[in-house]
Design a protein that fits this description.
Blueprint: E1 14-15, E2 18-19, H1 40-56, H2 68-71, H3 85-92
Antiparallel strand pairs: 1-2
Helix pairs in contact: 1-3
Length: 93
Amino acid sequence: MPFGLRAWHAGVSQYQGRQGCNDFSIGIELEGVDDAAYEDVQYAQLAALIRALLSAYPSLDRQRVVGHSDIAPGRKTDPGPAFEWGRLRALLS
C-alpha cells in the first residue's frame, strides 16, 4: 500500500498518549511468530526499508520504531520476545 494512504494496520492503538496509530504511522509487517528467531535477511531488509523511510520522511525518528506489542499491548504481541531490537537498532545506527 502506498505510504501516503491510510491503512488499517494497527487497529485500536496508541503511542505516547496519542490514539489511533493508523492516522500517523507507517506499518511494516514481518513474517514470523512471537517465539521463533527472525532470519538475518529479515533484519537486513527491515533496516534498509527503515533507512529509506527515514530519508524520504525527515519527520520520522529512528527512536520511535516500535512493535505492535508497544502500540496495542494485550491485544497484539508481535514481533515478540524472539525479535532482537538491539540488533535492529545497531543496523540503523
